[in-house]
Specification:
Largest sheet: none
Distance between the termini: 38 Å
Radius of gyration: 20 Å
Shape: globular
Strand content: under 5%
Number of strands: 0
């Protein structure tokens, strides 16, 4: 792989860390800013919404900018967002900072994949894209627990300073390693995106993505307080448990791809069913440290195992129903993942503040995943009716 790919990987690592590290810091942030856990959970929702709506709009608006200056501008925006977060004197300013960082996130992954593919021969494009996204996976395994540990020892602002420093390193790597002559892909207009949203078949898959992926975030957003207040783990144990969860996520991402290769719908039916069951079990297992660790390992695997299948399925359907906008459909499915995170975190906050309390967030998440399961079964039935080559065999 050319060194330029590793510059993109470093940037993906920084972006992945800032997106998910807040999960381990929620109790610390809530205490320091004198806000409730549910308000702290909105920090996750606001970031995800910034990616959801910022990515398609900003990608369309920045389509005429040369690729390297655009990436450098995005990393500058990323550093600014995380610096403001580190300096935030109030909850409101922290929300603004998160939205700024989220805008950089959305556009980076929209254009980064095409840049990675253009840096290598055609037969190595998938490997190049996978290498870039490896930064995101490694961030979940190492960046999130390390960032959580830093925040617990030195305060949550120190974590955002560290992430901003990662952004500076990524900026330098992109400036030094990326060639100046990168090809620009024709930008997808907002009208192209609206046309994709006009397909009922694709809307079903986007809903599957948002609910199936987002269901886990009802509980995952509040994982640190669950581990401390319900299970009884010490604060210092949370970062170690996040390492376990991150490793399970990485395994799930790889395993999910292999499971979904032949028949994504059939794979998604099984994965969503297992995910809903594990979330339901977690509601009862959370009182036991041993059962919690076992359940979290399974939940980590399942929460990301559906990602490859959902992406593959939306590409298959786009080729049939919107053949001229396959890339747009894929990008909108990424937006659906982030919309799911926003919905899950918001709903989790409502549950935490309700009489149901923290311990109920997993089974509420299971309901969302169960709805995604029903939508998947319905979509598979529509596929079988239209074409025997798609759907559950």
């Amino acid at each position: 792989m050319p060194l330029a790919i590793f510059a993109l990987t470093i940037a993906a690592y920084a972006i992945g860390t800032t997106e998910f590290v807040i999960v381990g810091l929620l109790p610390t942030v809530a205490t320091d800013l004198h806000i409730t856990l549910s308000l702290a959970g909105l920090i996750v929702s606001v970031y995800a919404l910034g990616v959801t709506f910022g990515a398609p709009i900003l990608t369309a608006l920045t389509g005429k900018i040369e690729r390297k200056p655009l990436l450098l501008g995005l990393m500058t925006l990323f550093v600014i967002g995380n610096t403001i977060a580190a300096l935030s004197p109030s909850y409101e300013m922290l929300l603004v900072a998160r939205v700024i960082a989220a805008f950089a996130h959305g556009v980076f992954f929209s254009v980064g994949a095409t840049i990675a593919a253009d840096l290598v021969p055609e037969n190595r494009r998938a490997s190049a894209i996978a290498m870039m996204f490896m930064g995101l996976t490694v961030a979940i395994v190492t960046g999130v627990p390390i960032g959580t540990y830093i925040g617990q020892i030195y305060g949550w602002r120190a974590t955002f300073w560290a992430v901003a420093a990662l952004g500076v390193i990524a900026f330098v790597a992109i400036a030094a390693l990326l060639p100046n002559t990168l090809k620009k892909a024709p930008p997808a207009s907002i009208l192209d995106q609206v046309r994709v949203l006009g397909s009922g078949r694709l809307l079903i898959v986007f809903a599957m993505t948002a609910l199936g992926y987002g269901g886990t975030f009802v509980a995952f957003t509040f994982l640190a307080p669950i581990l401390q207040d319900v299970t009884g783990f010490s604060q210092s144990s949370v970062s170690l448990i996040l390492v376990l969860y991150g490793i399970a996520i990485a395994a799930g991402n790889i395993g999910g791809g292999k499971i979904a290769n032949h028949n994504p719908v059939k794979a998604l039916v099984g994965l969503f069913l297992a995910q809903a069951i594990v979330l339901l079990v977690f509601s009862f297992a959370a009182v036991s440290p041993v059962l919690t660790l076992i359940t979290l390992a399974a939940l980590g695997f399942l929460s990301f195992a559906n990602v490859p299948g959902l992406q593959l399925y939306v590409v298959q359907l786009a080729k049939e129903h919107r053949p001229g906008a396959v890339d747009v459909a894929s990008a909108l499915n990424i937006a659906a993942f982030n919309l799911g995170i926003a919905i899950g975190a918001w709903l989790g906050g409502l549950v935490v503040e309700s009489p149901l309390g923290l311990a109920s967030t997993p089974w509420i998440g299971a309901i969302l995943v169960a709805v995604a399961l029903l939508l998947t079964i319905w979509s598979g039935a529509l596929d079988r009716r239209a074409s025997p080559s798609l759907g559950v065999a």
